[in-house]
From TrEMBL:
Keywords: Oxidoreductase. GO terms for molecular function: peptide-methionine (S)-S-oxide reductase activity. It catalyses: L-methionyl-[protein] + [thioredoxin]-disulfide + H2O = L-methionyl-(S)-S-oxide-[protein] + [thioredoxin]-dithiol; [thioredoxin]-disulfide + L-methionine + H2O = L-methionine (S)-S-oxide + [thioredoxin]-dithiol. NCBIfam families: msrA (TIGR00401). It comes from Nibribacter ruber. This is Peptide methionine sulfoxide reductase MsrA. InterPro entries: Met_Sox_Rdtase_MsrA_dom, Met_Sox_Rdtase_MsrA_sf.
Amino acid sequence: MILLGFTSCAQSQNKKQTTKRSQSTTTTAPVPKEGLAVATFAGGCFWCTEESAEKLKGVHEVVSGYTGGTVKNPTYEQVSSGMTGHAEAVQIHYDPKVISYQTLLEAFFAAHDPTTLNRQGPDVGTQYRSAIFYKTPEEKAQIDAYIAKLNSARAFQAPIVTQVEPLKEFYPAEDYHQDFYKTNPDNPYMQSVSKPKLEKFKKKMEGKLKDEE
C-alpha cells in the first residue's frame, strides 16, 4: 500500500529474496546468552523498530520476527497479507543490570505512535499493530501500569491502543530482514519513513543511547 507518496514496508522488500525462506531462516528464536533477558515488542515495520532498540545501552542483540498469529513458521509474504494474525515484532536481548524493562517500555512508546490502530504511517494492517508481548504476570502489571500512566498524563493526543498479549511462539524473520536498516541505507522506505522516526527516537531517548558513551 502507498500512502502520501511513501513506500510501505511490504513494498520495499526484495522479491527475489522472499523465495529463499526455507534456505535462509532459522525456525526458532535464539536463546539469550547467560545473564541476559528478552523482551518482545511490535511497533509497526520491524526494520525501524529493530534499529531503534539496538541504539539503547544494555541491548546486546535484536531479532526481527513474527509473533501473535496462528500459522506456524510464517513467511514474510504470509504475514504481509494480514491473514496469519502475526505482527512484525522484535525480540530484544538485554542486560537487566544495565537497562531495565521499564526503560525498554519508555523506548518502545518513544519509537512509534501507539494511538493508531493497526497502522504506522504508510503501513496499514494488523501485522503493523502496536503490541507488547509479556512473559510473566509481573511484566503485564508493569505494562498496564505504564500505559495507564501515559493515558492519565495525556502523553499522546489520543488514547493508547497498544495491545498487551501473552508471548507465545516467536519466529525469526528471513535473514535478509535482520539489520535491514544498516544494510539498506538507500532504500526509499528507510529514507522517507525509518530515518525520520529514528532521529526523533534518538532525541527522546537522549542519555540512554550507545553512541553517547
